[in-house]
Amino acid sequence: MTLSVPTGHSVDLRVQPVDDALDHVERSLQTHFDRNTVVRKRRSVGARTDRDTWVRIERRLLSKISDQGWNGTECAARLMGVAQPVWQGSVVWRDAGEPAMWRADETEILPGNPIGTAVLSEDPKLPDEWWRAFNSSLDALAAQSTSRVASPDTESVTQALVTEAIHSAFPRSFDTTIEQWVPAHADLNWANMSAPSFCLFDWEDWGNAPRGLDSASLWASSLAVPALADRVLRERRADFASRDGKLMTLFVCSKILGPDAHPQDPRLEPARHMAEQIVQDLQTD
């Protein structure tokens, strides 16, 4: 199966034809999609099946598939104590005309709706019960072990990546060495969690990352709603108080404040304020 795009180029599945991929998965998994439920994103397409499951389909260039493979959702199925959709099965195939592969993972339907977009502009007003389930899952995840390396946006998180990102945005004299690496979802934002029942999904990039990456990422996704950002800080205060957590907060701030920053982004000022405070703390340690 091929798509009419230049060889080796990324494909934006929001605009490219995906009917062939959907047909292929239907035949392979012996199911049928409700085409009215299709959700198209840049790298993936999802849809509900006639057996009340959800299938997420992603196309990835071979150059973006690391030695650890490309089966994050399948590997996450063994995690204990983490609220996630139960994984049912998958199908993987090589694109016939491009240096790329396709993967479809079938899981249970979410117990609620996705909370929103990656970055929220309104407070979802989540109950305390939701926050307790959220904390329980994140704590359980961080307490486990894996040989996987987190790869948000298909880029592996390494010490070198952390140091480069932080020092490019904050060229000050302080040590960026990470002390504690723990399992992380690595794409924790409001589009990948459900409510009113908490569930965490889209596990394709999970793996070991510096402590606090998930907490800092969710905080950054909440900055347009100050009360929500403050709630994340309170709920995950142990992460943010740790040295690694402070470095991860600078790491996510570097993405907000970088050269591609939009001058109207409401997250700019709170990110800048937090970054200045953390840099001062690190320089006096």
Can you tag this structure with a few keywords?
285 residues, alpha+beta, Phosphorylase Kinase, domain 1, Aminoglycoside 3'-phosphotransferase, Chain: A, domain 2, five-stranded antiparallel β-sheet, three-stranded antiparallel β-sheet, 9 helices, disordered N terminus
Structural class: alpha+beta
What value does the average pLDDT take?
93
User: What's the architecture of the largest domain, going by CATH?
Assistant: Alpha-Beta Complex
Radius of gyration: 19 Å
Helix coverage percent of residues?
25-40%
Please indicate the count of domains.
2
Please state how the strands of the largest beta sheet are arranged side by side.
Answer: 1-2-3-5-4
Topology order in helix (H) and strand (E) letters: HEEEHEEEHHEEEEHHHHH
How many separate helices? 9
Q: Which descriptor suits the 3D outline?
A: globular
What is the CATH fold-level name of the largest domain? Aminoglycoside 3'-phosphotransferase, Chain: A, domain 2
Percent strand: 15-25%
Uncertain runs are: 1-8
- Taking the alpha carbons of the first and last residues, their distance comes to 56 Å
Q: Can you summarize the main beta sheet? A: 5 strands, antiparallel
Overall strand count: 10
CATH class group of the largest domain? Alpha Beta
Overall description:
- This protein is an alpha+beta fold and 285 residues long.
- Helix content is 34%, strand content 17%.
- It has 2 domains: 19-108, Phosphorylase Kinase, domain 1, CATH 3.30.200; 113-284, Alpha-Beta Complex (Aminoglycoside 3'-phosphotransferase, Chain: A, domain 2).
- It is built from 9 helices and 10 strands.
- The strands form 3 sheets. A 5-stranded antiparallel β-sheet has the order 1-2-3-5-4, with helices on one face.
- The longest helix is centred in the C-terminal third of the chain and has 17 residues, at 268-284.
